[in-house]
Each structure stands twice: as C-alpha cells, then as structure tokens.
C-alpha cells in the first residue's frame, strides 16, 4: 500500500481482481473448505463489483462487496483489497487487521517485495492507532466504539481505536445509556471511566393507617315548640269574644229601641231611620268581630294541638372527629 495515490491503489485492485478470477480457488486451506463453482462465481461477482465501487470512491459500498466476496469464497488476496478500503475510510484498525491477515494467510505466496511493503505499512498504521481502557461502574454493560460493539464489561483488554474523534457508549438494561466523545491521538493509551445513570430508588412503602369508625351517637331530641304564638292567639281570641259579646248586647239594645220607635204614636220617620241604622251598624260590627273571634279560636287550637317540630332528618348520625380533626354530620 505505502499510502499511495488513489490511481496506484486502483491499479493494484484491478490486478488483484484479475488474479482472483484465475487463482481464487487455490487460496483455500483444504479440499474440504474449497468453495463450489457457483460460490466462486458469486464471490467473483461481488469482488469485481467492489472494484467498480472503489473506483467511484464509494468506499463504504465497496467494503460491503469485498466482505461479502470473502465470506463466500475466502481469499487472502481479498484481504489486501479490504485493507486498502479500510484505509480510505480512515479505519486504521480495520486496515491493520486486514493487512496482517493478508500476510498471515498469504505466506510464501506473497512476493518478497509486496511483503516488505505491507510490513512497512503496518508500522505506519500502528502509529495511527490508540488503546482505550474502558471501565464502567457495572458489570454486564455493552460497550460500543462509534456504534461498533467492543464487548461486555468488564473488558479484559484495552480496545484498539483509530486516531481521531471517537464516541464511547455503554448500555445496561435497567440503568440506561451513557456516552462520551473524546479526541484520540496516535499511540495514546487512555482510560475512560463511564458511570451509568442510577436506577431510581423504589418509593418507600408508607403504612396505611386503618381508622376504626367512631361510634355513632343518636341525634339529640328536638327542642319543645315555643308556646308564645299560642298565648298570643289565645289572648286575642279572648278579647275578640268579649268584644263580640258587648257588641251583641248593644245590638239587642238598639233593636229594642228600634221596636219602641215603631210602637210610638205619633212618631217621626227620622227617628225610625236612625234606630234602624244603629241596629244595622251594630249587627255588622258584631258579625265581623265574631268571625275574627272564631278565627282566633281556630288559631289557638292549632298551636295547642300541633305535633312537636322534627329535625331536618328523621334519623341523625354524628361522626366524631377523624383524621382531619373536623366533625362531619351524616344524615339519611
């Protein structure tokens, strides 16, 4: 690689693609692992598609095609292409692993000049990697670097990352997620301590007080009705009866005078009219006062005979002071 220009890389990729079309079946470890003819054809298709995408600088899509080709028909030659693509994506750890796999799997099939070149490139890639020791305040948390899973806590070894800005995330069910972003320089050895959000403490159980109902008390008896209206009505009735009696006597006297005026001879018409008028007036007054006396007597009898006044409810229940310290009266 030697971090050459894109044109040089492309030429290398095209040469590797051409070589793969001929020698790809010879790269397998044993006959048992040898892919079928259809698998070789499919792997070759993905490989060539990856070369085209790399040429168009669509490195992420090219990476997927090269991975798929290596899964279907593994070949150390494809690892070289993967290393080139990882480098273009600035994934120096991925490029380092791909080139190291290329040397390990290629063995003596790799020309000496190419091996020397890749070995030098590995040294340069190592200078662009850093090591992060990630600790989390809880075991079993899932750790990810730039959304790529890195393991579950406690992590046994530092995590290799490419230099640049990295985002470290830890997630644990029941505790949530914590994330931190930091800048990493080549050859750094950093320790990142993450603290997950604390799970909310359960609400304390508050004992519920069982309040026994207070004994029910009978409502007090109703007060005796007032006798004042009865006495007033009785007194008025007595006065009216007395007035009726007096007026009756006067009326009888006037009627006697009227009869006397009629029996006298000679008499005058004026005397007769006066006696008649007096009789009529006294009789009318007697009737009016007598009717009032009857009404007064009826009113007096009502107050004497009326039943005792009841409370607003026929049954009263009084609830003694409870939790709130007040008094509640319940009736039905």
Structure commentary:
- This protein is an alpha+beta fold.
- It has 3 domains: 6-126, Tetratricopeptide repeat domain (Serine Threonine Protein Phosphatase 5, Tetratricopeptide repeat), CATH 1.25.40; 129-194, Carboxypeptidase-like, regulatory domain (Immunoglobulin-like), CATH 2.60.40.1120; 230-309.
- 50% of the residues lie in helices and 17% in strands.
- It has 8 helices and 10 strands.
- Helix 4 runs antiparallel to helix 5.
- The longest helix has 37 residues, at 269-305.
- The chain starts with 5 loop residues before the first helix and ends with a strand.
**Major sheet attributes:** 4 strands, antiparallel
Give the N-to-C terminal Cα separation: 98 Å
Helix content: 40-55%
Number of domains as seen in the coordinates: 3
Query: Which radius of gyration do the C-alpha atoms yield?
Result: 61 Å
| Strand coverage percent | 15-25%
Query: What topology, given as strand order, has the largest sheet?
Result: 3-2-5-6
Low-confidence blocks of residues: 4-8, 17-26, 312-332
**What characteristic shape results from the CA principal axes?**
rod-shaped
Output the CATH topology of the largest domain.
Answer: Serine Threonine Protein Phosphatase 5, Tetratricopeptide repeat
Total helix count?
8
Describe how the helices and strands are arranged:
Layout: H1 6-23, H2 37-55, H3 59-72, H4 76-88, H5 92-106, H6 112-126, E1 129-136, E2 142-145, E3 148-152, E4 159-162, E5 164-172, E6 176-184, E7 189-194, E8 217-218, H7 228-263, H8 269-305, E9 316-319, E10 328-331
Parallel strand pairs: 1-7
Antiparallel strand pairs: 1-4, 2-3, 2-5, 5-6, 8-9, 9-10
Helix pairs in contact: 1-2, 1-4, 2-3, 3-4, 4-5, 5-6, 7-8
């Amino acid at each position: 690689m030697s971090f050459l220009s894109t044109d040089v890389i492309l030429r290398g990729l095209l040469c590797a693609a051409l070589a793969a079309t001929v020698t790809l079946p010879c790269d397998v470890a044993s006959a048992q692992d040898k892919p079928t003819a259809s698998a070789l054809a499919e792997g070759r298709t993905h490989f060539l598609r990856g070369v085209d995408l790399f040429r168009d600088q669509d490195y992420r899509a090219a990476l997927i095609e090269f991975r798929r080709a290596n899964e279907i028909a593994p070949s150390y030659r494809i690892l070289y292409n993967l290393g080139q693509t990882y480098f273009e994506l600035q994934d120096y750890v991925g490029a380092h692993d791909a080139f190291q796999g290329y040397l390990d799997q290629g063995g003596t099939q790799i020309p000496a000049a190419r091996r020397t070149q890749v070995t030098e490139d590995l040294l340069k890639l190592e200078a662009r990697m850093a090591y992060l020791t990630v600790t989390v305040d809880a075991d079993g948390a899932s750790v990810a670097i730039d959304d790529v899973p890195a393991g579950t806590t406690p992590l046994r070894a530092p995590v290799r990352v490419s230099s640049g800005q990295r985002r470290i995330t830890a997630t644990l069910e029941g505790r949530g997620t914590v994330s931190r972003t930091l800048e990493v320089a080549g050859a750094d050895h950093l320790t990142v301590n993450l603290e997950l959000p604390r799970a909310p403490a359960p609400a304390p159980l508050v004992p519920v007080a069982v309040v026994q109902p207070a004994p029910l008390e009978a409502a007090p008896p109703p007060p005796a009705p007032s006798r004042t209206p009865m006495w007033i009505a009785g007194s008025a009735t007595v006065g009216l009866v007395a007035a009726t009696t007096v007026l009756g006597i006067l009326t009888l006297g006037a009627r006697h005078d009227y009869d006397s005026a009629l029996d006298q001879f000679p008499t005058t018409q004026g005397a007769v009219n006066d006696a008649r008028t007096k009789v009529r007036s006294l009789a009318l007054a007697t009737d009016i006062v007598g009717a009032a006396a009857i009404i007064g007597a009826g009113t007096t009898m009502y107050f004497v005979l009326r039943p005792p006044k009841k409370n607003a409810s026929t049954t009263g229940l009084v609830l003694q002071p409870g939790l709130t310290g007040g008094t509640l009266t319940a009736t039905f």
